[in-house]
């Protein structure tokens, strides 16, 4: 029985490591936050309207990799961003995501196939970048 439990934990580890939302270059997604992770995510057109409580993210290849995120909720967040290239993830710097539909623009020199965002936490009043 202990062996089965250990195997289940090992099998679940990769799924936990890949938590979050992976946005490929050229894609735009809308989602909400639930328990610190993207929820109810759906791919949309870049011109899609952002409903109350939703977040829109777009990733493009501009001078490396660029990501625009707009948060239409009253809560500012910090979050984890990882650049995915050739199947490997590299943690990237990310700025505080402001509230009230103000966008943040992230830009990294390296070209990535996708950006994975996760681990959203309520940000302090000071913000960071």
Describe it.
The chain is mainly beta and 129 residues long. It has one domain. The strands form 2 sheets. Strands 3-2-4-5-8 form a 5-stranded antiparallel beta sheet, with no helix packed on it. Strands 1-9-6-7 form a 4-stranded antiparallel beta sheet, with no helix packed on it. β2 (28-34) and β3 form a beta hairpin. The chain is globular, with a radius of gyration of 16 Å. It contains 1 helix and 9 strands, in the order αβββββββββ. Helices cover 12% and strands 49% of the residues. The termini are far apart.
How would a textbook summarize the main sheet? 5 strands, antiparallel
Radius of gyration in whole Å, from Cα?
Answer: 16 Å
Task: Assign a percent range to the helix content.
Answer: 10-25%
Q: Given the C-alpha coordinates, what overall shape results?
A: globular
Number of discrete domains? 1
Strand content: over 45%
């Amino acid at each position: 029985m202990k062996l089965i439990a250990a195997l289940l934990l090992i099998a679940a580890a990769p799924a936990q490591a890949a938590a979050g939302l992976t946005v490929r270059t050229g894609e735009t997604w809308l989602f909400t936050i639930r328990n610190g992770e993207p929820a109810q995510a759906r791919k949309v057109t870049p011109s899609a309207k952002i409903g109350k409580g939703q977040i829109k993210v777009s990733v493009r290849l501009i001078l490396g990799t660029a990501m625009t995120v707009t948060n239409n909720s009253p809560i500012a967040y910090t979050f984890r961003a990882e650049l995915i290239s050739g199947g490997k993830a590299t943690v990237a710097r990310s700025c505080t995501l402001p509230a009230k539909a103000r966008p943040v623009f992230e830009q990294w020199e390296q070209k990535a196939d996708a950006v994975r965002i996760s681990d959203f936490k309520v940000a302090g009043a000071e913000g960071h970048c």
